[in-house]
Amino acid sequence: MSNYIKNVLDDLQSKYGHEKEYIQSVTEVLGSLGKLIDSEPKYAKFKILERIVIPERVIIFKVPWIDDKGNIQINIGYRVQFNSAIGPYKGGLRFHPSVNLGILKFLGFEQIFKNSLTTLPLGGAKGGSDFDPKGKSTREVMGFCQNFMRELYRHIGANVDVPAGDIGVGSREIGYLFGQYKSIVNSYDSVLTGKGINWGGSKIRPEATGYGCVYFACEMLKTRKIDLVGQRVLISGAGNVAQYAAQKAIQLGATVLSLSDSNGTVIDKDGITLEKLEMIKELKNVRRGRIEEYSKMVPNVTYHANCRPWQLAPCDIALPCATQNELDLDDAKALVKNGCIAVCEGANMPTTLEATAFFQKQNILFAPGKASNAGGVATSGLEMSQNAIRLNWHSAEVDSRLQSIMVNIHDAARRAATEFGEPDNYVMGANIAGFRKVADAMIDLGI
Ligand code: NDP
Q1: Segments of the chain with pLDDT less than 70
Q2: Contact between residue 369 and residue 349 where contact means Cβ atoms under 8 Å apart
Q3: How far is the CA of 293 from the centre of ligand 1 (A)?
Q4: Model pLDDT for residues 136-154, shown as the tens digit of each residue
Q5: Which residue among 105, 114, 126, 248 is the active-site one?
Q6: CATH homologous superfamily for 55-189?
Q7: Closest residue (by CA) to atom 23 of ligand 1?
Q8: Domain map of the chain by residue range?
Q9: Which atom of ligand 1 is found nearest the CA of 308?
Q10: C-beta separation of 275 from 251 below 8 A
Q11: Residue 2 has what pLDDT?
């Protein structure tokens, strides 16, 4: 690692060592930029690394709301506007009790490079709250969303910052947030993406992250002349990304063996079919139940409480689609031992640094989330375009644009990795390809 990179990381560690996910994501990105930084002295001259690791703006606010018993509750709201060199801030909102500034800084930092990779003019941001929608009534969720937007509205705008969903923020929450925004500003702006299809949303946006992840996996497999048909796939999570990754994998002929939530994992050794997946969608999205129930609805399904999928069944491909650091070194060793040939991240940073290094050493095809899950934000970009021209594209058109964006991201990452002598290193390739565009724009825009 060059001295320049090491000094920036040491300085960040001394100031923000307590924000461990943020430090982890910066270490992953900067740690893979060494060859580029050594060959391009301009980045050190313009102090690009020191500048790119610090958010342009962090907004923190209180969100009081009233629960169904009439008690006042208070949560914390955040928006981390990380980098706007190539476009307005863009990135999701996460509602989960684990949310804190360090997690949102990691997610916002990742988003800069992900958005750059899509080739769309989008800066990087992330936001959310430690509010937990789980177990709350619809009225409580609506009340919270409205009060969250009562503050957030003054910091966002179609050409300023365009939030979307993430963990705990689906189309229901986007609806309440958008409804409140619209009634405050009296304008039907494209200020949120992930909107419902009847009020400004794009076809294929709900499917986009999961579909895109599978499209990316197919591109990686092609480099080794492997087809997805017949491959056994383990998927974690049972939310938006996991459901649509499963759907596309099944449609393309793979056998999906697992899904999970924060309580445990189901293994369906017969494979989850499209019909069974519809039952899971109804269970998770309508009844808001736990994945354990699936094992009671379908024969030959086992439930494993407090377990992640990785050590429960052999597979060829792993798609971690739940949350950060959900696949560690022990999981990685078990996956490789059991025959896994490819790991494609649907979630953001689900693989620990140690597990990533292990996969790379074992020559496993490994796609970092900032490349392989970029289909969601890319389709959000397409939603913004449709809103701007006041037209709705058909599903087939959006899906075909999504597919070509994922192919382009794959090729850009592979090209950059090849340029620096490691063609299979998608981590290095994605980081270099994403970084260059933003860093060069920062130089062009001055101090
Ligand atoms: P959802 O809220 O729809 O689903 C999240 C899933 O992950 C749920 O099954 C949830 O289980 C599980 N989960 C959440 N936290 C944990 C945890 N700490 N341990 C174990 N399981 C957990 O979110 P999404 O599907 O939208 O997001 C999943 C991942 O994909 C996140 O990393 C997100 O940042 C990333 N992502 C999402 C995009 C999108 O378009 N939605 C775009 C790009 C990335 P439970 O219900 O028990 O909490």
Answers
A1: none
A2: yes
A3: 19
A4: 999 999 999 999 999 999 9
A5: 126
A6: Leucine Dehydrogenase, chain A, domain 1 (3.40.50.10860)
A7: 167
A8: 55-189, 208-363
A9: 20
A10: no
A11: 86
Q: What is the pLDDT of residues 302-311, one digit of tens each?
A: 999 999 999 9
Identify the burial level of 262 via C-beta atoms within 10 angstroms of its C-beta, where 0-12 means exposed, 13-18 middle and 19 or more buried: middle
C-alpha 418 to ligand 1 mean position (Å): 32
CATH of the structural domain 208-363, one choice from 3.30.1330.60, 3.40.309.10, 3.40.50.10490, 3.40.50.720: 3.40.50.720
Cα(9) to centroid(ligand 1), Å: 28
Residue nearest to atom 10 of ligand 1 (CA): 261
Where does ligand 1 bind, in terms of residues with CB under 6 Å? 165-168, 170, 209, 237-242, 261-263, 321-323, 326, 346-348, 373, 376
- Is residue 281 among the annotated active site residues? no
CA of 94 to the centre of ligand 1 (A): 9
